Amino acid sequence: MAGKAKTKLVNGVRTDIATGQPATQSTDTQQRNLMTLSTLQSNPKPAVIPAPPPAVAQPALQGAITASQDAFTRNLEQRRQEAETGRTDSFQALLDSLTNSPGVTQLTAQEYARKGGVDALEPQLSQLNADILAEDEGLRMSLKEIDKNTTGLETSALVAEKNRLKTESLDRQAALAVKQFALQGQYDSARAIADRAVAAKLEAQKQKNDLLTLIYSENKDLFTTAEQREFESKQADRNAALQMERDKEMARYNLILEKELASYKSGLDASGFGTAPVQSFEEFLSEREQQLGMNIDPSSPKYAELQQEYNSTVASGVGGGLYNEFDYRTANAVLSLTNKFQDEQVVKSFTNTQRALNIINSIDPSTQNPADHQTVVYSFARSLDPDSVVREGEYATIKKYAQSLTAKYGAEISNAINGTGFLSPGAIASIKQTMNSNYQANLPQYNNIKKQYERNVDQVAGVPGTGSRYLISAESGVPPVDEDEQLFDTVITGAQQQKNGFFSFLAGALIRQVPGASLFNR
Question: Does one domain contain both 380 and 298?
Fold first, then answer.
């Protein structure tokens, strides 16, 4: 019984320890343990204090706590490592974007180098400009050589030969101008496309950098102070480099603008060769006297008339005022239509018929100078076929277009061409009649084309009457050949020279004034 009681007591103690409350004794136990006088005076038994229960749960609990701490630590470490990896990767992405992104110069060079792009078209355009200058210089040298008159030609033949050379050269220059205008349009389009592509790439690059910068700003606290400083330094360097590119491009274009304006004001074209200096009145008068074959008295009305003509020509400026009157786009469009009008086959034929009539009417029908009769045949052939080869196929041309004349006057025409005979008054009269018939036949068609071009020019210019002022008229009064060509030189050739110097720069001037991507245009 004693062993059972002890076990019961120990269990009670354990319960007390576990629950934190004293165990409740049974009534029987309480009676036995009741403190009385008898129990106090007798020999009491020593109290037995039970040993504490063994701490069998402590090692397991400590292991669980340690394991939990280790898992938490590992989780924190893993999260720290993941944050570190993300931070490092995002930081590196920022640096790579800011450091390795292509600049304006590199992007522009790539776009300009594309097949059929700016780099491919620029040499062709330069060659056309050089061809036009060479043609003009060739004409000048040829006229200078003719003025020496080493062959002893009569004045009328000398004038006719000079007019012939001028006409041919102007035709070639007009053809080159048309090609130049078309190629210039391709060049400007290619450059505009390339510049837009560069601007788009720069805009995409800017958006990417802005996004990376936003990521950086959101995670700025994760960066170390040193890394933050490195990023901000790289970003500042990149922004400074971009700003430097912008400043360099703007300075370069400002320099080009100043150079072009200076060239324009000084009468120089963009190629640097320069246009001809303004002709003095003495030189102008000498040319007119040579063309007329006479000395002009300063007191005569003709002298005053020439003075007025010279003053109006000089006052009109380069291009006859075309580029002074309109903005460059409108002036280029008017010039294009004017050149196109001159290239119309009907206009060529009509103009050559007029010039031929002028030449033939200026020749005495009774002249015995073989050169005069050759001039009649040459002029007649050119009026029939403006593109015929001079001095090579006149007889074939006349035979092709005027068979009745060759049937009746074939021998006379052949002799006149070869310089072995003369045209009879009847042959000259028949030639004049044929040319007048051609003139009357072509006049309605010519007028229709001219009115159509005048309307087109007026619509482009936005100013009524522009077409009638800038289109060369060939039907009114049959003007003298030299004056007609002088008008062409003043209005069209001068405008073409001015265009050569300004077109390549002015074609993109409006775009370059827009801030941002347009500053990167080359």
Answer: no
